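Session log. Operator J.P. requested a structure for one protein chain; no other inputs attached. Running the standard single-chain path with C-alpha cell output.
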Amino acid sequence: MLFRKIQTLIETHLKSDTNKILLIDGARQVGKTYIIRYVGQKLFENFIELNMVEDSLGDRLFAEVKTIDDFYLQVSMLAGNKMKQKENTLIFIDEIQAYPHLLTLLKFLSQDGKFTFIASGSLLGVTLSQTTSIPMGSIRKVRMFPLDFEEFLYANGLGELVVSEMRKKFEREEELDEPTHNKIMDLFRKFLLVGGLPDAVNSYLNDHNIQLVREIQSEIHDYYATDASKYDNEKKLKIRRIYDLIPSNMENKKKRVIAQSIENKKGKSFSDYSDEFEYLISAGIALNVQAISNPVFPLIESTGKNLLKLYLNDVGILTDILYGNNIRAILNDENSINLGSVYETVVASELIAHGYKLFYYDNRSKGEVDYLIDDYKNLSAVPVEIKSGKDYTVHSALNAFIQNEDYHIKKAYVLSNASTVTHNGKITYLPIYYIMFFQNTPDDIKDLKF
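Structure written below.
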C-alpha cells in the first residue's frame, strides 16, 4: 500500500485519550477512506464503516437521526454485533457532508464517549459554515491532500534513510552529489506526469503505462468538473467554467483569474462568483493563491480580495490537460516547452500540503513574485520564486522586492532545475525538489517561555 504521512497523525489521535473526534477533510479521490479504513482495522477489533452518501441514495437510515440514541439504533441495525466498548470499537462516518445534521451530532457523540469515532468528508468548510450548531471543541478537523513528492519517493522505493539524508542536506543548505541529483530529478519529472492521486500513482507503479495513468486523471478531472451537487444548474455551469479556465489562466503572463472572462460579461467582479470560488477551494480541487501588495507579517492581514490565482490540486491532472500522452515535453526537459505553470502548480500543492497558506506578491510597476510565505522566526515574509528554465538567476521583480527596505526581507529562495546550492546576498538558490522540505511548523519558537 502507499505510505501516507497522515497515517501517523490518525494513529496518534486514535490512541490518545482525547474526546475530540478526528474529522478528515479533503478532495475526493485523495485516499481519505482507504487510509482511515486501513488504520481503523489495524487498531480496533471492531471496525464499523458507515458511508452517508450511499445511505442517502439508499435506505436513508440516518437522514432523520437527531439524537445519539437514534444514531446508535440505526448503527445497531447494520452492525450491532460489533458495538462493544470504546477501547475496541471504532465507528467511521464516511462522507459525512451528505447529512450536515450529523456534524452537529458529533458534539454529543463525543460527550457521550460510548465508542471511538472518526469521520471524513469533502466540502466540510462549506458544510460547517452552514451548520446551525458547529461542534467546535468536540472535533479536530484536518485536511488531507494527494500524495506529496516525499510520499511519491517512498512509493518508488526510496527509503527513509535516503530522504532523511536529503533533509539534512537541505537544512545545511548543501547540494546532493550529481548522481543522486539526477535520480531525484528523474523521479521529480515523473511526479509531474503522474501527480499524487492514489489511483494514478498505483497505476503507474503497477504498469508504467502513461495512457492508463492519463485515463484515470481524465476521469477524475471530469468528475471534479461536474460534481457540484449542492448547487443549482446555473451555479454548476459557472463552477465548471471557472474550473475549466484554470489551465489557460496559468498559461497567461499574469496567471490570475479575470472575473469578466468567466461569463464574458463586462462589469462582473469577484463578489459575483463568491459561492463558486468557495466551492472550488473548499472542495479541495482548486488551490487559491491570494495577492499581497504590502507584504507585512503575518501575510494574511494584507491580502487583496480582487486578485486571485487558482491552481489545480494535482499536477498530474494539469500535465494531462497540457500534454496528454506526450511525456517527452517533461521527461526530456525540451527547451521549446515552457514548464512554468507546471512547476508553479507542483510548488503550490507542496506548500499547501505542508501547512502554508498561499500568497503571491503583486505590484503593477515592479512585477510579481510567485509565492510569499510567513517567516515566524524573523516575523517577516519570505519570497519564493520558481524557475523552470536555465535563466534561473534572472528575476528583476524578486530583486526589487528584496531591495525594498520597508518589507524587512531577511531571506529569499529561488527554486530551479540546477543541481547546485548557491547564495547571492539574501537569495538562496535551491534545486526544485527541495520544496518537499519546506514545512510550516515554527518549531524554532515552540519552546519559548512567556
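Operator note: Residues 443-450 have pLDDT under 50 and may be disordered.
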